[in-house]
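Input (Transcriptional regulator, HxlR family):
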Amino acid sequence: MRKENSTQAINEQFLFQVCELNSAVAMISGRWKSQIVYSISQGNNRFHLLKKELPNISEQVLGRQLKELETHAIIVKKEIPETVPPGVKYVLTNKGLDLIPILESLCDWGKTYAEGKEISVCPMS
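Output:
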């Protein structure tokens, strides 16, 4: 856990105050968050479906990334009462839905400009 008065925390707070871009990037930063958001938008809205879609992510990391996306109100967790035991599904909020075209544009940008990588398919396009 990082100290709130550390140089890194102070610098981060300053950057968030001077530019909204820094805050936005912080909300979706993380190796898996963009893939999780996109996967939920494609109907993989339950934990086991996300794990199946993203087999290289550990369950612990998936759970943590989902919680962070919930904290930033990009997704919400809803109960599915008709299942036994009751299950949950993840649903994109309006904020999350607004993020999809941005992620698709970033994917296109990455296809064009990613250095040293052959990118032929991006799951977001």
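Residues 1-30 form one domain.
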